[in-house]
Amino acid sequence: MYSFLILSIPATVIFYCCIHTEYSFKSFFGPIAIGLTAGIVSAIFKEYFIFSAYVATSGFFEHFLHILKTTFFPPVILFAFWDLFSKDGTRYKTTSAFPLLASFYAIFLPYISISSPEKHSFFFLFENPILFICTAFFSQAFYLKIKLSIESKKKNKTAVFAIAFVVISSILPAIQTLWYFKIFGFAHAVLAVIFAMATFIFYKITFIKENSLDTVL
User: Which spans are transmembrane here (predicted)?
Assistant: First the structure.
């Protein structure tokens, strides 16, 4: 029952690392290990140190903000940590950003899903993993854009990309909240498909525009 929930993100990470032949598979062990460790620590901390279980009865906006924490803060914290402590170049940092964040979600998403009362729902078992994979991909693309704008000292561009990242990070929480409160029927499924397609297009355009990191880095 939980096969797709548990295996979809790790399988995507492995596939991603295999197709990026400019680096050996072993070169991704570092970011993957950091992401997995962060996911395990976060799950343990939430399980044993945050004693009040969240119940989505407060309303749409409160539930939306609760989910936003899992789509906004992990990429910001992990990418900032990676950028600060990794001594590698921008090309490697950006390429490894996806396995870094996705490895975190590979642990944390199954934990929060299986511990949820809705753990047997189609949304939690199938739709949510796809949405979080998309979140990892668009976060990587924004990491590239923000990093390059900072390095080129374009403050206005950096601010625009940062605001855009916050806005797009709000899409998954909005979709999940629509599903939870059963607003507009199957609107959440339609929006999920649109979000996945838009993420793919945005990701491809970003890395084609940056010439797969070859021209600008």
Answer: 6-25, 32-51, 63-85, 97-116, 122-146, 158-179, 185-203
What separation in angstroms does the CA of 212 have from each of 19, 95, 146, 204, 216?
Answer: 13, 9, 16, 9, 9
The rounded radius of gyration (Å) of the Cα atoms in the chain is 17
Q: Which bin fits 50, alpha (ψ -120 to 50), beta or left (φ > 0)? A: beta
How confident is the model over 100-140, as pLDDT tens digits?
A: 999 999 999 999 899 888 888 999 999 999 999 999 999 99
Q: Which residue has the higher pLDDT, 216 or 206?
A: 206
- pLDDT, one tens digit per residue, over 44-70 is 988 887 645 555 556 788 888 888 988
